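Need a sequence for this fold. Nothing fancy.
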């Protein structure tokens, strides 16, 4: 049985430093994902979006739920989140949300489960979920571009230039999400495609939003992304050229059992 990663004793905030870039450049999830999440929830009174970041999961959920509570450890991320009349943003830890017991028909965690103390978070999720409520977690891995040579340049930046600057647990994103413990009655989630059409400026902005980029800048006093832009630009096809960027995308969903 897969083992939980070593728990994090103190909450970590890896994203406040580049919250504006995070809000502007992170890929948006496919609409089909939210339709699926709405379909598996038995009731649609309340969803809790945990580690909401810029609200890119919380706001689409508001189409299907009367209320969405969206929490994040970072007050700066909350400040940059998209507003919606049915989304209530709060600064809170994943493991101690303050959400009312037995109230949430759905809990979502997008691209963040690997940061949590899993045992503590799962206990909190079971406390918060309503009877037959659903926890849905998702994660995307490393991006590829519609030109293999561009993908190689981008991968080299991610894993060689920034390799030493990724925080612990970064290896649990994408397909590795399947290796993490998931103590819920798992549902068979469909396959979803996560892809965007981006210019060079958008792809480089996405790389600038990474926690590893922020750490590199702090340690070196220098932003590595202009060098990335130069390396990619030599064969991108011009500033206005749009290319397809894709990520491996994993969704796991499970229903809380009567015995919690």
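Here you go.
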């Amino acid at each position: 049985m897969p083992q939980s990663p070593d728990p994090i004793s103190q909450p970590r905030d890896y994203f406040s430093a580049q919250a504006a870039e995070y809000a502007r450049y992170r890929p948006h999830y496919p609409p089909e994902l939210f339709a699926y999440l709405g379909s598996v929830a038995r009731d649609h009174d309340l969803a809790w979006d945990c580690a909401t970041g810029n609200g890119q999961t919380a706001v689409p959920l508001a189409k299907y739920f009367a209320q969405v509570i969206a929490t994040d450890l970072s007050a700066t991320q909350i400040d940059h989140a998209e507003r919606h009349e049915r989304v209530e943003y709060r600064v809170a830890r994943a493991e101690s949300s303050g959400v009312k017991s037995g109230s949430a028909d759905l809990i979502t965690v997008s691209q963040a489960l690997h940061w949590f103390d899993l045992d503590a978070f799962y206990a909190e999720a079971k406390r918060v979920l309503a009877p037959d409520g659903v926890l849905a977690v998702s994660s995307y891995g490393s991006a590829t571009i519609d030109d293999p040579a561009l993908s190689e340049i981008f991968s080299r930046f991610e894993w060689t230039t920034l390799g030493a600057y990724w925080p612990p647990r970064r290896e649990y994103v994408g397909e590795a999400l399947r290796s993490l413990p998931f103590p819920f009655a798992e549902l068979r989630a469909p396959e979803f495609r996560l892809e965007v059409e981006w210019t060079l400026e958008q792809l480089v902005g996405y790389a600038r939003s990474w926690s590893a980029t922020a750490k590199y800048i702090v340690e070196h006093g220098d932003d590595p992304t202009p060098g990335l832009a130069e390396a990619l630009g030599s064969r991108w096809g011009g500033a206005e050229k749009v290319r397809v960027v894709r990520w491996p995308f994993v969704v796991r969903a499970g229903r809380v059992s009567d015995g919690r």
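For context: The domain at 16-255 is CATH 3.40.50.150 (Rossmann fold).
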